[in-house]
Design a protein that fits this description.
By secondary structure, the chain is of the alpha/beta class. The chain is 50% helix and 13% strand. It has one domain: Spore Coat Polysaccharide Biosynthesis Protein SpsA, Chain A (Alpha-Beta Complex), CATH 3.90.550. The model has no long low-confidence stretch (mean pLDDT 86).
Length: 438
């Protein structure tokens, strides 16, 4: 931000050229234009207000989950003020002992049924949707907590008969560590800007799978495509939420966001665990967006419109923005590293020269200081909604968040692109909270 403003002042007062400075200004201006469009459009978002009353089946796929966390999640569902018709706990065939434990625990509970599905979340969702008896099916992960009003609020958009899926606000449960705060920060930005922006045209590109509601009539015909998806010949395991959302919109249904439906999910406890989670998400995003861009036909859904993304401008905008933003960030890092390596830093070099002869390391420190301070100011401006929490953790994380987003997330995208064919779970390998290592 600081360098961006300074270079614009130099360009306006001393003239425009055709070097690295001009490339830097164009790239950063592009990022701000992309963000400002979303920011301004989001100001007109409004949640659904009409009450919707219908039957709802809650599907809870469970695999590699901490037992106490799972019980707490189940309690948050049963405590809902909206009347739930049934709860389907879908265990994994790889954990027969856990399934038996669930059967014994809820043996006398008429509201809860325990089923055992083939391996994988996609198979669990399919079994749950096919076994459900309600008009609305809600999938909530075994580490995601619902509030007393959350389920009722999530169902409001279904008053519109063309809505096929709804997602609520999904933030982090008790973010009391730097890792959790960084995770919550990214999610808060997404649900403050990106998701409402898409929802206004019923085109949310990913109805986050941690807690999502579907019209059963809309998703039931899509189950075969969900469980048989392949990319470059490799079966897809992760990315069920994005896959179902794309199929919903390809078959003409609306995918929307209800901001009043508040849910909380467990965050990875280690930074490495967070990186593995994000890497999985980035790979899912690469596969999903390329499938949409290249209009891949759906063999098991003959009525699917393969050109659907080009008929939903905001969905297309977000997919292009995802790829374009990564390219711009890579180019900016190239210009930054080149300027330091060549011994100059755009027009800051004039100021550095006025200091006289100083050690090279002192110049590098100044360059890094200016860059980090500018990045912190930029992220603070773009992230203003989350500061309403007034937590001390935000102040501690503020200097780290720009590095997290501008370095680590960009690096992960570079890793994800050539390895997007990999579709396994990178984070749910343990039996701690959320499948993460304790």
């Amino acid at each position: 931000m600081i360098t961006f403003i300074y270079e614009w002042i130099v360009a306006l007062t001393k003239g425009w050229g055709s070097g690295d400075r001009e490339a830097f200004l164009i790239l950063v201006s592009g990022l701000w234009i992309l963000w400002m469009y979303v920011f301004i459009a989001t100001r007109f978002y409004k949640p659904w207000g009409a009450r919707f009353n219908s039957t709802v089946s809650v599907i809870v796929p469970v695999y590699k989950e901490d037992w106490n966390t799972f019980l707490a999640v189940m309690a948050s569902i049963t405590d809902s003020r909206y009347p739930i018709s049934e709860i389907l706990v879908i265990g994994d065939v790889r954990e027969p002992q856990f399934v038996r434990m669930c059967e014994r625990h809820w043996a006398t509970d008429r509201l809860i049924r325990v089923l055992e599905a083939p391996a994988g979340k996609r198979a669990a969702i399919r079994m749950g949707v096919e076994a459900a008896t309600s008009e609305i099916v809600m999938v909530i992960e075994s580490d995601t907590f619902a509030g007393p009003e959350s389920i009722g609020e999530l169902l409001r958009p279904f008053a519109d008969l063309m809505i096929g899926g709804v997602v609520g606000k999904q933030l982090i449960y008790e973010p009391h560590s730097i890792t959790a705060v960084l995770n919550n920060w990214a999610e808060a930005i997404k649900y403050a800007f990106i998701i409402p922006f898409q929802s206004m045209t019923r085109s949310v590109t990913v109805l986050g799978g941690r807690c999502v509601a579907y019209r059963r009539a809309a998703v039931l015909p899509l189950m075969e495509s969900l469980t048989t998806e392949k990319f470059l010949g490799f079966p897809c395991q992760a990315g069920d939420d994005g896959r179902l959302t794309s199929l919903l919109m390809a078959t003409g249904w609306g995918a929307v966001y209800q901001s009043t439906a508040d849910f909380r999910t467990v965050s990875p406890e280690t930074y490495f665990g967070l990186l593995m989670q994000r890497l999985r998400w980035f790979r899912n995003s690469c596969r999903r967006t390329l499938r949409a861009f290249f209009c891949i036909p759906e063999k098991h859904v003959p009525n699917a419109d393969r050109f659907w993304v080009y008929k939903r401008p905001r969905a297309l905008y977000q997919m292009v923005r995802t790829w374009l933003g990564s390219v711009i960030m890579i180019m900016l890092w190239y210009l930054f590293i080149k300027s330091v390596w060549m011994g100059y830093y755009f027009h800051w070099n004039t100021w550095f020269a006025s200091l006289g002869v100083v050690p090279v390391w002192w110049i590098v420190v100044r360059v890094l200081g200016i860059s980090i301070l500018g990045a912190v100011i930029t992220r603070a401006i773009k992230s203003y909604p989350i500061f309403q929490t007034n937590s001390r953790w935000w102040l501690l994380a503020l200097p780290l968040f720009p590095l997290h987003m501008s370095i680590m997330m960009v690096a992960l995208r570079l890793i994800a692109i050539p390895t997007m064919w990999k579709s396994g779970w990178l984070s749910r390998k343990y039996s701690g909270k959320g499948g993460f290592q304790n």
